[in-house]
Amino acid sequence: MIRIPTLALAVLSLATFDVHASQAASPTLEKIRELGKITFGYREASIPFAYLGTDQRPTGLSLDLCAAVADKVRSALRRPELAIDTVAVDASNRIPLLQNGTVDIECGSTTNTAERQKQVSFSIATYVASPRWLVAASSPVTELKALEGQTIVVTQGSLNLGVVQKIIAERQLKVKIVQAKDHAESILMLRTDRAAAWFEDDILVAGMVANAPDPKAYRMLAATYAPTYYGLMMRREDPEFKALVDAAIREKMASGEFDKLYAKWFEQPIPPKGLNLLLPMSDAMRARVATPSDALTP
C-alpha cells in the first residue's frame, strides 16, 4: 500500500477543491457542463480570423484558438466527448448573443475597447492591429501631407473614423472624408478614383487587397498609428472562464504554436482561394506573444 504524506495529501486535496470550486463559480462552465457542448460565435467574412472556408465551414485563426479553448474546457470538466456548436454572428448581434447565452465565446476579430468592456470580457490579445493608409500603386502619394485637398474614405461604423478625424485635425489637413457602407465599397472607391486613400486596420486592408482581382494595384503607406487589440470575446463577470481562455492562448504562445498558427493564416496561402495576405508578424504583436496581456496600451 502506498502512503501519501499528510502534507502532500492536504495540498492535493486543496488543489482538487480549487479546480472544482472554480468550475462551480463559472456560470459559463456550468452551462457548458449541463448542455454537453460549447458554442462558438463566428464571423462569416472576417479573413483570416473567422470566415467560411472550404465547404462553407467556419475556419480561421480565431477558430483554431477557440478549438484550443474547447480542449481546455474538456480537460477542466473531464468531458472528452464535449461537443462544439457554431453560430454565425455579425457586428450588430455578437454582443447580445453572448449576453443572452446563445454563444459562449466569440471567435472573431473584435477590438477590445474600454467601452465594450462595460458589456463583455476579452481574452489576452490575439492580434495587434494598426490603422494604415491604402492608396493605388500608381498614386504619387507617399506621405500624409500629399493628401491635402483630396477625398479619403473610411468604412461606415469603423472605430477608425474617430482616429482619422483626429489625425487630420492635428495635421491641419484640408481633406474630404466620406464613408463607404462596407470594406468592399471602400476599396472600390479607391479603385475607381473616387477616393485617394482608404484608412483602416492593416489586417482588414490586407484581406481586401489579397481578395481583389488585381492585388498589385494597391500599396500601403509606411506610416502606422496607435495600435488596437483584438481578442476572443466572452460574457462579462465570469473571471473563471476568462482565466481558462487566457490559459489556453498563453500555452499556445509559450510553446511556439501560436507563431506557427500566425504564419499559417497570415503568411501562407489560405482556403478556399489560396490567398496569401503577406503580412508578417509586427513587433507589437511579437511583444504581446512574449508577454501576453489584455491591456489596451502597449
Map the helices and strands.
Blueprint: H1 6-25, H2 27-35, E1 37-42, E2 45-46, E3 50-52, E4 58-59, H3 61-77, E5 83-88, H4 94-99, E6 105-111, E7 120-122, E8 127-129, E9 131-136, E10 151-155, H5 160-171, E11 176-180, H6 183-191, E12 197-201, H7 202-210, E13 218-220, E14 228-235, H8 239-255, H9 257-266, H10 283-290
Helix pairs in contact: 3-8
Task: Write a structural description.
The protein is an alpha/beta fold. It folds into 2 domains: 12-128 and 228-290, D-Maltodextrin-Binding Protein, domain 2; 131-220, 3-Layer(aba) Sandwich (D-Maltodextrin-Binding Protein, domain 2), CATH 3.40.190.10. The protein is 39% helix and 21% strand. The chain contains 10 helices and 14 strands. It has helices at 6-25, 27-35, 61-77, 94-99, 160-171, 183-191, 202-210, 239-255, 257-266, 283-290, and strands at 37-42, 45-46, 50-52, 58-59, 83-88, 105-111, 120-122, 127-129, 131-136, 151-155, 176-180, 197-201, 218-220, 228-235. Strands 1, 5, 6, 7, 8 and 14 form a 6-stranded mixed sheet that branches. α3 packs across α8 (239-255). The longest helix is centred in the N-terminal third of the chain and has 20 residues, at 6-25. The termini are far apart. Mean pLDDT is 90; it is low at 1-23.
